[in-house]
Design brief:
- By secondary structure, this protein is α/β, with parallel strands linked by helices.
- It is 30% helix and 22% strand.
- The chain is globular.
- It binds flavin-adenine dinucleotide.
Length: 443
């Protein structure tokens, strides 16, 4: 496969100290595909994108086969921070307005909101217990000068989402359980909730099976070709012939599957640290008692939330390489940042730490649409670290594009994926971008 990172990124090492698997009784093992099968639709990748597409298609009466190289949720979908929130594009509202105009930009923002509602509806409709908490999400200013930006964002939220955000000044933070020497103000957007991502994705897999979908684990797609009017998907021990193909591999994509993807997505690492359960006395000592999911105003942001079992989940962007040394260094950086933000928890153990790949687009807008140059092939990817909601919805949108029934895809999501200028060397952009953003993030 033609992938961008060192082999470690695609193996078990980054999730050896993962937390989510400890929250479920067992992770079902789906057997590999053996021999030749046919289907209406073949989906590659069993994360939230692929599973939501597959489920909507199976519910619409299509015969669906999902191929997953590892097991459902093995990718970012089963190892993320569980923030189900607005987002997906990294482009700013002014940039979207300039590129797409007022009406299409509004459509796009409506889709961000619909994405959150979609996940809530899926969880409710199928009774998936995913440990939801948090009333919307809270953005914290890490320097006093960022409070102005919070006001601007409140206006943007009013304009594009018609919601009133709550803005808190520094003195109110401790009163509301957000005490940290690091933060100087807060803005809460009343949209979104947090969830246990592995429970969500395992729940989705089961619902898909119940709806008649077929799911094969340990089944990497290794070659794509045509057999008459069908896609021919070759795996180590089998083949699928399908009328329709969906590629849902996001940060774990390979540049030749299909070839159109080459150079059009940039995988980057994100990391999560999780503490042991904090005692009531420890929570009181820090003054952090809120269950809100939070992130800070840095470009290279931290995201964190106190989970229902009183563990703190603390995420941050990852290293530029995937090696044991880079992993250890990032773990140390995560720990140092955690101690700076929550100094009263300097003694608290953080036994869980893992990393994974998400994907960025050159124009900073996700894509959900046909694969140009391929007949009846679709893909959705590049949610810029906000794929729990947007990836789920993008999968649903692909199903709607295929069947002609369901929500319309807003124009910005269909605008295409431009190639990164450096093509297969595009990872070299990361040091420049991280240095640039790191300078802007100085306190
Ligand atoms: C550490 C971390 C924290 C994050 N936190 C958040 C968060 O809090 N909120 C949020 O909204 N987003 C978050 N994200 C991003 C979010 O998880 C992703 O955007 C989303 O899960 C992407 O879903 P997906 O289904 O498109 O891809 P993935 O979940 O990555 O799934 C792709 C799947 O494709 C499979 N695959 C790849 N190649 C092949 C092949 N050739 N054949 C068969 N299968 C293949 C992989 O094994 C993988 O399981 C985070 C990401 C990471 C890594």
């Amino acid at each position: 496969m033609r992938r961008l990172y060192e082999p470690m990124a695609y193996g078990p090492a980054p999730i050896a100290d993962g937390f989510w698997p400890t929250t479920v009784e067992a992770i079902p093992e789906h057997a590999p595909l053996q021999g030749a099968v046919t289907a209406d639709v073949a989906v590659v990748g069993a994360g939230v994108t692929g599973l939501n597409a597959a489920l909507a298609l199976a519910e619409a009466g299509q015969d669906v086969v999902v191929l997953e190289a590892e097991q459902p949720g093995w990718g970012a979908s089963g190892r993320n921070g569980g923030f189900c929130c607005l987002g997906g594009a990294k482009a700013s509202a002014p940039a979207l307005l300039k590129r797409f105009g007022e009406a299409a930009t509004r459509d796009y923002f409506r889709a961000e909101r619909a994405a959150v509602d979609h996940v809530a509806a899926v969880l409710d409709r199928h009774a998936i217990a995913a440990e939801r908490h948090s009333e919307g999400e809270t953005l914290l200013a890490f320097r006093p000068s960022d409070n102005k930006g919070l006001q601007d964002l409140a206006e943007e939220m009013q304009r594009f989402h018609q919601v009133e955000c709550e803005v808190l000044a520094k003195p109110a933070l401790a009163e509301r359980g957000f005490a940290s020497p690091e933060f100087h103000g807060a803005l809460t957007t009343p949209i979104g909730f947090a969830l246990n991502p592995l429970k969500y994705v395992l729940g989705l897999s089961q619902v898909l099976l119940d709806a008649g979908g077929r799911l094969f684990g340990g089944t990497p797609l290794v070659a794509l070709s045509r057999d008459g009017d069908r896609h021919l998907l070759t795996t180590p021990a089998g083949q699928v012939r399908a009328k329709v193909l969906i590629v849902a591999t996001n940060g774990y994509s390979s540049d030749e599957l299909p070839g159109w993807l080459a150079g059009r997505y940039l995988p980057v690492q994100s990391n999560v640290l999780v503490t042991r359960p904090l005692t009531a006395a420890e929570l009181a000592a820090q003054g952090w008692t809120t269950r809100q999911m939070c992130y800070d105003t840095r470009h290279l942001l931290h995201y964190f939330r106190l989970m229902p079992d009183n563990r703190m989940l603390f995420g941050l962007r990852g290293a530029m390489r995937s090696t044991p040394a880079a992993h250890a260094k990032t773990r140390a950086r995560a720990r140092a940042d955690f101690e700076r933000i929550f100094p009263e928890w300097r003694h608290v153990e953080t036994p869980f730490f893992w990393s994974g790949l998400l994907a960025l687009a050159r124009d900073l807008v996700p894509y959900a649409g046909p694969v140009p140059g391929m007949d009846r092939a679709w893909t959705a990817l590049c949610y810029h670290g906000n794929g729990v909601a947007m990836g789920s919805y993008a999968g649903r949108l692909l199903a709607a594009q295929i069947t002609g029934q369901g929500p319309e895809t807003p124009a910005p999501l269909r605008a295409g994926l431009r190639r990164f200028e450096l093509g297969r060397w595009r990872r070299a952009l990361l040091p420049l971008a991280y240095t640039f953003y790191g300078l802007q993030d100085r306190g």
